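Two proteins were folded this term; both appear here.
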Amino acid sequence: MEEKNINKEEKNKLEENDTLSDDSKNSSSQSTGDLNKKNSEIDSLKKQCEEYLDGWKRTKADFINYKKDESKRLDSILKFSNETIIKDLLSVLDSFDLAIQSFGKDSKLEKGVYLIRSQMEDVLKKYGLERIIVSVGQQFDPALHEAIAVIESNEPSGTVVDEVERGYMLSGKLIRAARVRVSK
């Protein structure tokens, strides 16, 4: 009987081991399935995080570019904001030139007017005004000169014969072309 009891006990133990073995197999396959599911979920979340991070990086770069563009635009506005008033003052400089031409030689008044004109031109230079230098015999440049007359001359065709009105640039931008007479 004892032998039968031992056999029954062994048989029960074997059955329990088989049951545990089946359960562990089931739980092992379950845990593998859960693990795969969780890994795919983690991968999906990582991919989503990368997409968000890339979007934020692009937005940050766009914002930095926007700030640079706005800074350049503001610099341009500041540089050329006084363009209108400087253009208006150019006619005053022209009037000074006419006054100086009308004076006789060695006139004290001429020297005074010339000093005032020079002083005014220096102030305008401080704000970016540059005179376009034109010399007789120079080749006509339509980007800097405005031909107001074409005349007969000993000079080669297309050269500047005379400067009628001075031209000016403001910080490298043409605000008034030099008015010249050109040879035929």
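Next, the second protein.
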Amino acid sequence: MVSVRHQAPVSGAGKTGETVRNSHSWIGMAFLAVVAVMPLTGCATPNDGAAALESGPKVPDNVLTRAVEAQWATVPGLNDRLDVTVRDGRALLTGRAGNADERVEAVRLAWQVNGVREVINEIGFGDESSLSDKAADAWITTQLRTKLLTDAEITSRNFTIETVNQTVYLMGRARSAQELERVRNHARTISRVRQVVSHVVVPN
């Protein structure tokens, strides 16, 4: 006959075992926490900071326009001779500078504005336009805007029109090359238009 002897637990053994188990449990939780953090740290790349900056708030175009004009105000008469139109952070400079140095300065000052992604220099030289030329420019812009608004195949709000000395400058974003060509054709059909210059972005 096999006898089974039951040994009484040593005093305090139960508490010690419980303490060991709790200690192991705590260590295991700490290890899992470290492992969970490691993949996040490993995924970081040098471009993460750049991506965060690119996703930052965009400066409104009207704010950029006023900022460029404020920069030009430091040069006497520059705002009277030149104009700036901003669309999607792209600044179109037009008008007629008094000399080459003035044109270079106007471009340099436009680049000083934080938020301007591109400066398109269409500044000419020579005397300012007469009042009749300016009236003609306004008339051409109105005519073209009307044509775009009444063309069902064109999203007119995607285009900005600037007319200087009967030269039409187009900015904005076209949905396709075909849409841009329709806009250009409308501009070409308007009387007194000398030239059509496009700075419109077209998707690839």
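Residues 129-204 form a domain with the Histidine-containing Protein; Chain: A; fold (CATH 3.30.1340). Residues 13-42 form the longest helix (30 residues). These notes refer to the second protein only.
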